[in-house]
Specification:
Layout lengths: L9 E4 L2 E13 L3 E11 L13 E7 L5 H15 L2 H17 L8 E7 L3 E6 L2 E6 L2 H12 L6 H7 L5
Antiparallel strand pairs: 1-2, 2-3, 3-4, 4-5, 5-6, 6-7
Helix pairs in contact: 1-2, 1-3
């Protein structure tokens, strides 16, 4: 339970059991509760290895309404800031594909990103599959938005990775 949002201790994705690594609340401008999130990784995986080419599942439950355009803009900006210029240009078609999948969200809606090696990164909204983007380089870039070196919020990242409670 994170600030009133319940997350399971484990999830099963295509027969693969993933364990809760950590969960947290993300605040925007210190006082606006934007969303809660939970990260699931293979059992006994160290959070430092979360961006490796391993299965992972990130769930975000929103507390505010957000537009699909806002998601697209934020995704593009955060990936651009976290990868080199060449990598960004290589990933741009996949970023645009992901951005076309986004829909507006209302409070209590849940987006989830699930990466399975060899299959790609699937985006779901309230458990409804919206599409899958192939490639481990893309998965690393998109998950880095929350759990990379320059995440959207370092405290949020650390809690998702199980570094602090």
């Amino acid at each position: 339970m994170v600030n009133g949002t319940e997350f399971s201790n484990s999830v099963e994705v295509r027969g693969i059991r993933l364990q809760l690594s950590g969960a947290a609340l993300l605040r925007y401008m210190f006082f606006i509760e934007a969303y809660t999130g939970a990260l699931y990784l293979p059992e006994k995986t160290d959070g430092r290895d979360a961006l490796d080419d391993i299965s992972k599942h990130l769930v975000l439950e929103y507390r505010v309404a957000l537009s699909s355009d806002g998601f697209a803009k934020a995704t593009t900006e955060k990936i651009k800031a976290s990868v080199g210029k060449d990598a960004f240009q290589r990933l741009l078609p996949k970023i645009k594909s992901l951005n076309r999948l986004y829909k507006d969200v209302q409070p209590k809606d849940r987006y989830a990103l699930t990466y399975l090696p060899g299959l790609g990164t699937q985006l779901t909204l309230n458990a409804e599959p919206l599409g899958t983007i192939k490639g481990s380089e893309f998965a690393r870039a998109v998950f880095a938005i929350w759990i990379g070196k320059n995440p959207i919020d370092k405290t949020f990242r650390d809690r998702l990775l199980g570094k602090s409670k």
